[in-house]
């Protein structure tokens, strides 16, 4: 004969386990039903017609493994935020051409650039950008140095840069360059000098 | 309450079953990719007096589920780095330099696990090996950090644990660079934000090997692997005494 207390305890445990299983199942079903994020539209708005200015950006060259400065024309901006976005758009314009020295696949974009005082910039790339990135220490380092050096040398006051992908933190760009922390602009500037001089 | 007669057996079975179901539900609700905490402090290395078991610890990057770069469809980076690492160990051993491998098979190891293994064995020099389809010859890297003094207390910040060893890392890199450049082999030296370099408490460099011919298949060539590894091993020989006695700057 099973004691009454054991029957009660067993029934309670059974009810709890069943309840938990149903709860977890509901959570999973809810998660599965949540629509995937729609392919993001370009976040950086198209260039507005108007006066332009010449800026210097640092362009990666895969063949030689170097950075080279290049002057490009971007729409003149009144604010730092807008200037940062125009710069990134101008730089990507070079990388997505057919004759790019550091090709990125079509659809590669900088979703947004956030300037957070004091001195922090956040560059948010889309997944097409990193999917098309050549994997390798030097190849990824060229991309990171090109983005950060171009941004920090044209938008004063930036001391640290964080790179996100689709708005989220990511361990590496494509298996090598560490994206888990902040890049120190002064250290990247030293790296850019090394990459420019070799 | 006592277990008695035949009925308790049924009660035991029921209770065990329920516990298993509950455990299963709890496990089922866990997210599968919980990472180890990355920002925990790491114990500072104790003052070294005895020579290390391994003078050089070689780490073939990637492995297991992390294939690394697809150098070509049939050549994942993880296989190339392992081949280079085994050959480098052989070249070092033949020069009476004790060398070990962080992985000697197709194992999945996180960068935190690699750093933990190396920090616990305290080799005199750590070399992380990578391979790339782009480039020409070798690129040597040290951590992209600011160097600080070695005496920073009992615990070090995990993300900048390398800072105290950076002067010795850069010294080793410069010596190896100078030796290999004398051999006429194409080589560059850079800094890189590349884990686990930042997390190591010993002198640490990374080496990325690229073909010199422009053909990726050269990376799989035994002749090329032997030439690169012999050059690296020969460059380490002159600095071995300083590394062994930990008297490098």
Describe this structure in words.
- The complex is a heterodimer of chains A (198) and B (249).
- Chain A is α+β, with helices and mostly antiparallel strands and 198 residues long.
- Chain A is built from 5 helices and 6 strands, in the order αββαββααββα.
- The longest helix of chain A has 30 residues.
- Chain A is elongated and about 90 Å long.
- Chain A starts with a helix and ends with a helix.
- Chain B has a single domain, classed as Aminopeptidase.
- Chain B is α/β, with parallel strands linked by helices and 249 residues long.
- Chain B is built from 6 helices and 10 strands.
- About 5% of the residues of chain B have low confidence.
- In chain B, strand 3 and strand 4 form a beta hairpin.
- In chain B, the strands form 3 sheets. Chain B has a 6-stranded mixed β-sheet with strand order 5-2-6-10-7-9, with helices on one face.
- In chain B, helix 4 crosses helix 5.
- Classes of the chains: A alpha+beta (198), B alpha/beta (249).
Core attributes:
heterodimer, A: 198 residues, alpha+beta, 4-stranded mixed beta sheet, two-stranded antiparallel ribbon, 5 helices, 6 strands, B: 249 residues, alpha/beta, Aminopeptidase, 6-stranded mixed beta sheet, 10 strands, 35% helix, 17% strand
